[in-house]
Amino acid sequence: MPGHSSSVVEVDGPWVHRAVSAGGTRFHVVEAGDGPLVLFLHGFPEFWWSWHNQLVSMPAAGFRAAAVDLRGHGASDKPPRGYDLVTLAGDAAGLVRALGEANAIVVGHDWGGLLAWTMAVYHPKVVQRLGVVSAPHPLRLRQAIRSDPRGQAWAARHLFGYQLPVWPERRLIRDDAALIGKLLHAWSGPGWPDERTERLVRQAIQIPGAAHCALECHRWFVRSQPRPDGIRYAHRMRTPIQVPTLQLHGSLDPCVLPISAQGSGRYVSAPYRWKLIEGAGHFPHEERPRAFDTQLLNWLQDPEPER
Hints:
307 residues; alpha/beta; 42% helix; globular
């Protein structure tokens, strides 16, 4: 069936849509508010809308919130290459500078969380504080998949299915992207997603090229591990993270198990805080936005964010 045009993601609201170029790639950025910049990075299978609650709550608390469609997603460019975490981290670092700031508070969910961890290692000067949601440190995630076959490896079985060529993309967009709706329901706690969010996410994945680009990220994560680029990446990611880090996780997350995310703090030498969002699954910032925002804002307003 024909895909949707990228205009489906230009949803109206108390925010501004911008096209911002960084490193030769054009990104769709949605922003609101004035103050310190908070860059929000979405996960799979979503786009910038993942952060629509925070585009309201953060400006109200005195921050400038910017949610981006990552490379290959939504209304951003969809180049054929560059879906490894190192390139994506470079994209995000370039975006901070393109938005007129030397550094930003970076908050990432799921794949955007892995990218945020990577950014803090590869571009430490650009990351002022690090917030990760439903995302273990990439080395912790690798370890959890390897060491827990009945737990995290089974929970992440979709990751291995996505390694096949072409067919997974077709499955994602078949029947008006019905499988995307199923994933959202399966990975969340009760009562989410709302109809509007499900509709938007299903439309966004049908934008030509979006499903393929989303899966290329997953393919790199698995296939690179024995390759020189993956070995270099793993070695570099052992570098301790030097900025205050907040890790938030849904207590009911069936996709990335809370126990898999725990233990990521060993890679952080700066103040580190771990909090579970009770009653939330894989999308705590959307399922329990008030509880999520409370944790995020308390941490941002704490000058010395120890546990």
